[in-house]
Amino acid sequence: MRALLVANRGEIARRIFRTARDMGLRCVAVYVDADADAPFVREADEAVRIGSYLDVDAVVDAARRAGADTVHPGYGFLAENAGFAAAVIEAGLTWVGPSPEVIATMGDKIAAKEAAVAAGVRVLDVPGDDEFPVLVKAAAGGGGKGMRVVSSAAELDDAIAAAQREAQAAFGDDRVFIERYVKSSRHIEVQILGDTHGNVIHLGERECSIQRRHQKIVEESPSPFVDDEVRAAMTDAALRLARSIDYTSAGTVELLVDDTTREFFFLEVNTRLQVEHPVTEAVTGIDLVREQLRVAAGERIDLDVTADGHAIEVRLYAEDPASGFLPATGILAAFEPAGEPAVRWDAGVETGSVVGVQFDPMLAKVIAHAPTRREAAGRLALALERLHLGGVRTNRDFLVATLRSDDFLAGRTTTDFIDRVAPATELTLDGDELQRVATAAALWLQGANRADAKVLSQVRSGWRNGRLPAQRVAFTNGVTVSYAARRDGTFGVGDSVARVHGWSPTHIDIEVDGRRTSHRITRAGDTLHVQVDRGTVDLRVEPRFVVPGTEAAHGGFVAEMPGTVLEVRAAAGDRVRAGQTLVVLEAMKMEHHMNAHVDGTVTELHVTAGQQVAKGDVLLVIEEAT
What tens digit of pLDDT does each residue of 285-299 get? Predict the structure, then answer.
């Protein structure tokens, strides 16, 4: 091996590049137009433009053109595409992953369950006609796409149809199947590693139970639930299955564990590296990408696997937890991890990155490793709080609330965690905290105005030769700061006294009534992103005048995200009720139902099926019932 092409993007490509370069390999990227300015493209030794990450021929041709002799699929797009693996091998290139035959068998969830049964691993049974709830799942995919929990027979047909549409869009295969749904359960997975000499080992388990929309957001190793007896049984089952299918490279056997009975059932085998693989790397000290490359080169596995401490990973997404975790878009005005505490950041973005609708909304994986689980949770929460982040709505505050919750710290991390615990979805400051942050923002702003002054820049802020009212800054969240410069260099802010000890275009060091704090501040248009001890607060300066015609339409029902209109389920004149689905949008290959907030009558309809909409576009207008 001399040159490696990574058939993926974002943080996936960057992570694989790091190990490949450590092993002396030249790194090649592929990219589409939407990623032309992405960090991974700049960091590659060479990058080849293609039309689609799913175009097998284009990716293989890119490897040839760039002189890459090895292809790593990453852990998305074509990573579990047997046809892609076969095409790479047929082109005379080295494939990093299991054989195409194994990928094909395990990629079909129905065939995979049959293989598990043959290996003596228990699977979830098919429910009876009147047994609910049930789970509808895509036969060809994962990641929560094409998956629906169904509570009653009346919901089944719509759920199957929606799952089929999502599966077709995401995987090109609309087959679905139904299995029993276990409400209070845990997702436990076993990391396996096999070579071409018949050796297969496991590297312990991970727990990935905390999920939203059936997609993982918190992962850890080891599981706080699994004891030695259960661990031995689960890893033995995983190895039996791996050996029965002649598994090579890194992979994951996913299991569902009933939280009450402690019984476990086979779910699937992911024939690739998992997003959550860093927690296994952290506790074992083993670089899984390195082992993948060694196996692909024909080397034998020669590892002494021991576990040390505890590791937790969270997935930082551009999404709005308060609105059902709908994807969010925009430009990252700020993305600056703090130097302490020491955690691992696997990020695909940077300050200035555009977050669009074309790809998965994950911004970064953040991983903490510590001697104990509680310490790892605290370290990870603090690292998230100290991340200077602004410009796009994210789940950062929700993740912090999760990590600091009593239920998480006690290990009560079942799949119903979010519904049961309901962690806070955003950072909330009390009145005094908000006023102090607003004071810092207002005095940073006055410093910026003085720095930008073209004339009389040496004159103290607010100076007049007569006694006039204090200066005033109003923010759109309802807080107002009135301040006046005093002769001793301090500022009178209401009944408080403030002193600016240091100012720069990015920071303010301020003391208010004897309490001194330092804040990182980023200005993006009329919004100030102010770093505080529990996260980042966004303060938007209230405009002095509202431009006529910019007011929101009364009764306007707007798109909560950019996407494509799949269905319009209402017409002008229809009476609708709160909670009723009016429009179905597709964003990031998943369906999102836009539901009415009030009872009323549709008076205007502005969209049709197939139309592209931006966040905030008016879809229709509802006259509320009185």
Answer: 999 999 999 999 999
Question: In this structure, what CATH number is given to the domain that contains residue 462?
Answer: 3.30.700.30
- Mark whether 535 and 573 lie in a shared domain: no
Intra-chain end-to-end CA distance of the chain, in Å: 72
Predicted local confidence at residue 458, as pLDDT: 59
Question: Could you tell me if residue 187 is inside a domain?
Answer: no
578 and 527 co-located in one domain = no
Considering the domain architecture, whether residues 416 and 435 belong to the same structural domain is answered as no
Per the rule left: phi > 0, alpha: psi between -120 and 50, beta: everything else, 10 is left
Query: Is there a domain that residue 241 lies in?
Result: no
- Report d(CA 614, CA 562) in Å as an integer: 4
Question: Residues 534, 564: one domain?
Answer: no
Q: Rounded mean pLDDT of 380-404?
A: 98
Structural domain total, the chain: 5
**pTM for the model:** 0.89
Is the pLDDT assigned to residue 467 strictly greater than 80? no
Residues 10, 12: Cα–Cα separation, whole Å: 5
Write out pLDDT tens, residues 251-276.
999 999 999 999 999 999 999 999 99
State the CB neighbour count (10 A cutoff) for residue 550.
7
Q: Rounded CA gap, 218 and 313, in Å?
A: 6
Between CA 456 and CA 452 the distance in angstroms is 11
Q: Kindly state the percentage of the chain with pLDDT values over 70.
A: 95
Residues 566 and 461 in one domain: no
Strand order in the sheet with 600-605: 556-558, 618-624, 600-605, 575-576
> Exposed (0-12), middle (13-18) or buried (19+): which is 125, by Cβ within 10 Å?
exposed
* Those residues with Cβ within 8 angstroms of residue 329's Cβ, 6 or more apart along the chain or in another chain: 318, 355, 356, 357, 392, 561, 562, 615
Largest CA distance in the chain: 91
Beta strand residue intervals within 551-617, DSSP E: 556-558, 563-568, 575-576, 581-587, 590-595, 600-605, 612-613
By three-state DSSP, how is residue 495 classified? Answer: coil
Q: Which of 393, 426, 459 is the last residue of a domain?
A: 426
Is 180 in a helix, a strand, or coil? strand
Burial (CB count <10 Å: 0-12, 13-18, 19+), residue 458: exposed
Give the tens place of pLDDT for each residue, 405-461.
999 999 999 999 999 999 999 999 999 999 999 999 999 999 999 898 766 555 555
Residues 593-622, buried b or exposed e (16+ Cβ, 10 A)? bbbbeeebbbeebbbeeeeebebeebbbbb
Does some domain include residue 233? no
Contacts of 57 by beta carbon, 8 Å cutoff, 6+ apart? 87
Mean pLDDT score, 77-90: 96
Same structural domain, 533 and 445 = yes
CATH classification at residue 28: 3.40.50.20
In the listed set 96, 116, 142, which residue is the last one of a domain according to the structure? 96
Domain that holds residue 20: 3-96
Whether 79 and 58 map to the same domain: the answer is yes
What is the model's pLDDT at position 126? Answer: 81
Per-residue pLDDT of 527-569, as tens digits, reads 999 999 999 999 999 987 655 554 555 667 888 778 889 999 9
Distance CA 22, CA 357 (A): 33
584 lies in some domain: yes
Dist CA 369 CA 310 (whole Å): 6
pLDDT at 130: 83
